[in-house]
């Protein structure tokens, strides 16, 4: 697993939701998709933004957890909250700079992407990366990545004063050494009178089934 | 003989002192004090509860010492845990909200309701999986029954005596008080149930262990994430305690007491190990989960109070109280999310944070949307 890396390139995302469907088939979260797929600006674009856990080196979610329920494995994967410990406070949901963890009220627990740990810990690809048709989500070695496309994978993010480095790499133009998170230049569209990026034409497809299919129940 | 003509030895060079590695063990002073205080209180309670050791069973002294140590460990770890900034914040807020003037009676009702749902009924586990819930309930009630019987017995607070008037009847003696209003025939269904309470507890635990073990052997997710010390060890300990405990009865009832001494020693060792593991292993979640009830208060209060709005999309996404509390504890954790444009990155809702990663990738790339 040490040579394998996860690369995210949202610019390539075509919004097919294959990642979400595949994610929900992963054994570590059983029927729930841990991928977020955001619509950037419905009025002007079909662009979507896929979001997986970035697996921070010093995870904010784990730091703000009052119950010590979020653990990072030795190979750098930040796990979902541990079921016996998570007390459902949602501190992690609200503090994660990438907006990744989700709170599920019916089970009173936070769940998030754990990079399909049942798969990646034995050398397989995560479900989302194995099905992404445009390789917006890509899992492989750096050499594999470089043999297929341009751009420089970077894992340093600047949230104002806070620098966060991650296990997951974002594809940036050559020469960029990290990403400074700007907000102002992305405010304008929100305030146009006809902006309607809060509308999701695929909302009727959500949420993915929370209940387990009958065939899976016996395995839990 | 000394030779005065021998030149003097050169002066010693000042060498760097060799650093001796020291044990990297630091004890938390507050945890130590609270742990010792609670352990002392329990010891005093044992002394008086057993009528100055009159009712104390010397054969069970080892269990009593181990329990006192386990209490020290649990309190020590709890106090250390409470000192973490987020935990301290919830602890503080939980009590503040609970003791709000004018709401105390209502809060007591809420506490009882949440306590029932989350700690006794464990409804949230049932929503995860019924089999998982059943396993947890079996282990939970097995442990509760075992603790309710063994702790008072080992402390000398509880014992059974024959009724003077009718020796075949038993009565309970609690803290030296004969509960003679409650006598029961030793050889009756009730007598069997009381005398075999620990066997009943062991059977419940074994049923739960079997279910849990099945999941831990077959479930891909568990296989990938479980650790021996955290997930298997508790099952091994519970299994060992249950089986060796039941072997005592088996020896007594079916083997004419054979191997009893060996079994009782083995059982004692397994119980000591379980008690030592209690504060530092997975079983500590028993004490952590109580915080779940406090969070329930926190969420209810937050929902009734003002809500924070996202600095980008203006949507309400979090209670103002939780946002303020997060901003307070983040610097204590060495995280500074101060942002010149929005004041603090924490002023953005999770959805906008997700979108902004992509938007900023576009900005860096110099491309428009696809």
From TrEMBL, chain A:
<feature type="domain" description="4Fe-4S ferredoxin-type">
    <location>
        <begin position="44"/>
        <end position="75"/>
    </location>
</feature>
<keyword id="KW-0411">Iron-sulfur</keyword>
<feature type="domain" description="4Fe-4S ferredoxin-type">
    <location>
        <begin position="76"/>
        <end position="106"/>
    </location>
</feature>
<dbReference type="Pfam" id="PF13247">
    <property type="entry name" value="Fer4_11"/>
</dbReference>
<keyword id="KW-0004">4Fe-4S</keyword>
<feature type="domain" description="4Fe-4S ferredoxin-type">
    <location>
        <begin position="4"/>
        <end position="34"/>
    </location>
</feature>
<dbReference type="InterPro" id="IPR017900">
    <property type="entry name" value="4Fe4S_Fe_S_CS"/>
</dbReference>
<dbReference type="InterPro" id="IPR017896">
    <property type="entry name" value="4Fe4S_Fe-S-bd"/>
</dbReference>
<protein>
    <submittedName>
        <fullName>4Fe-4S dicluster domain-containing protein</fullName>
    </submittedName>
</protein>
<dbReference type="InterPro" id="IPR050954">
    <property type="entry name" value="ET_IronSulfur_Cluster-Binding"/>
</dbReference>
<dbReference type="GO" id="GO:0051539">
    <property type="term" value="F:4 iron, 4 sulfur cluster binding"/>
</dbReference>
<dbReference type="GO" id="GO:0046872">
    <property type="term" value="F:metal ion binding"/>
</dbReference>
<keyword id="KW-0479">Metal-binding</keyword>
<keyword id="KW-0408">Iron</keyword>
UniProtKB/TrEMBL annotation, chain B:
<protein>
    <submittedName>
        <fullName>Respiratory nitrate reductase subunit gamma</fullName>
    </submittedName>
</protein>
<dbReference type="InterPro" id="IPR036197">
    <property type="entry name" value="NarG-like_sf"/>
</dbReference>
<feature type="transmembrane region" description="Helical">
    <location>
        <begin position="133"/>
        <end position="158"/>
    </location>
</feature>
<feature type="transmembrane region" description="Helical">
    <location>
        <begin position="189"/>
        <end position="214"/>
    </location>
</feature>
<feature type="transmembrane region" description="Helical">
    <location>
        <begin position="260"/>
        <end position="280"/>
    </location>
</feature>
<feature type="transmembrane region" description="Helical">
    <location>
        <begin position="235"/>
        <end position="254"/>
    </location>
</feature>
<feature type="transmembrane region" description="Helical">
    <location>
        <begin position="60"/>
        <end position="79"/>
    </location>
</feature>
<keyword id="KW-1133">Transmembrane helix</keyword>
<keyword id="KW-0812">Transmembrane</keyword>
<feature type="transmembrane region" description="Helical">
    <location>
        <begin position="31"/>
        <end position="48"/>
    </location>
</feature>
<keyword id="KW-0472">Membrane</keyword>
């Amino acid at each position: 697993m040490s040579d394998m890396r996860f690369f995210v390139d949202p610019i390539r995302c075509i919004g097919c939701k294959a990642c979400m469907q595949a994610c929900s088939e992963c054994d570590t979260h059983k029927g729930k998709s841990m991928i977020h797929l955001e619509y950037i600006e419905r009025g002007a674009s079909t662009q979507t933004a896929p979001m997986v856990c970035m697996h921070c080196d010093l995870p904010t979610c784990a730091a703000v957890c009052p119950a010590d329920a979020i653990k990072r494995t030795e190979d750098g994967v930040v796990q979902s909250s541990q079921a016996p410990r998570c007390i459902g406070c949602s501190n992690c949901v609200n503090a994660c700079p990438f907006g990744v963890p989700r709170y599920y009220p019916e089970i009173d627990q936070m769940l998030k992407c754990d990079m399909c740990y049942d798969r990646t810990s034995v050398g397989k690809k995560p479900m989302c990366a194995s099905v992404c048709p445009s390789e917006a989500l890509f899992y492989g070695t750096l050499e594999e990545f470089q043999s297929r496309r341009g751009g420089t994978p970077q894992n340093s993010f600047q949230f104002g004063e806070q620098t966060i480095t991650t296990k997951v790499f974002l594809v940036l133009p050559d020469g960029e050494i990290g990403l400074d998170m700007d907000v102002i230049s992305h405010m304008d569209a929100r305030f146009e009178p006809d902006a309607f990026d809060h509308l999701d034409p695929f909302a009727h497809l959500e949420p993915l089934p929370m209940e387990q299919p009958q065939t899976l129940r016996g395995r839990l | 003989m000394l030779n005065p003509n021998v030149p003097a030895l050169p002066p010693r060079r000042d060498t760097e002192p060799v650093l001796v590695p020291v044990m990297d063990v630091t004890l938390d002073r507050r945890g130590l004090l609270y742990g010792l205080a609670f352990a002392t209180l329990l010891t005093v309670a044992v002394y008086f509860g057993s009528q100055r050791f009159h009712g104390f069973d010397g054969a069970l002294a080892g269990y009593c010492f181990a329990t006192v140590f386990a209490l020290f460990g649990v309190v020590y770890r709890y106090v250390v845990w409470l000192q973490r900034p987020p935990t301290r914040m919830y602890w503080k807020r939980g009590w503040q909200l609970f003791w709000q003037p004018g709401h105390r009676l209502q809060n007591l009702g809420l506490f009882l309701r949440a306590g029932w749902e989350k700690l006794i009924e464990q409804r949230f586990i049932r929503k995860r999986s019924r089999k998982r819930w059943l396993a947890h309930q079996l282990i939970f009630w097995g442990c509760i029954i075992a603790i309710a019987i063994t702790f008072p017995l080992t402390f000398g607070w509880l014992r059974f005596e024959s009724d003077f008037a009718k020796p075949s009847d038993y009565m309970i003696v609690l803290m030296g008080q004969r509960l003679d209003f409650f006598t029961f025939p030793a050889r009756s269904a009730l007598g069997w149930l009381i005398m075999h309470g620990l066997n009943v507890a062991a059977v419940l635990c074994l049923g739960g262990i079997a279910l849990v073990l099945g999941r831990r052997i077959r479930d891909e997710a568990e296989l990938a994430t479980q650790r021996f010390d955290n997930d298997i060890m508790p099952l091994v300990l519970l299994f060992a305690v249950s089986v060796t405990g039941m072997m005592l009865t088996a020896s007594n009832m079916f083997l004419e007491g054979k191997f009893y001494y060996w079994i009782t020693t083995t059982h004692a060792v397994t119980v000591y190990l379980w008690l030592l593991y209690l504060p530092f292993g997975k079983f500590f979640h028993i004490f952590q989960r109580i915080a779940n009830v406090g969070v329930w208060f926190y969420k209810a209060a937050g929902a009734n109070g003002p809500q924070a709005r996202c600095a980008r999309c203006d949507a309400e996404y979090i209670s103002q109280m939780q946002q303020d509390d997060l901003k307070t504890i983040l610097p204590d954790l060495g995280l500074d999310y101060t942002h010149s444009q929005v004041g603090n990155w924490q002023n953005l809702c999770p959805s906008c944070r997700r979108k902004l990663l992509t938007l900023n990738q576009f900005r860096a790339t110099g491309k428009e949307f696809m």
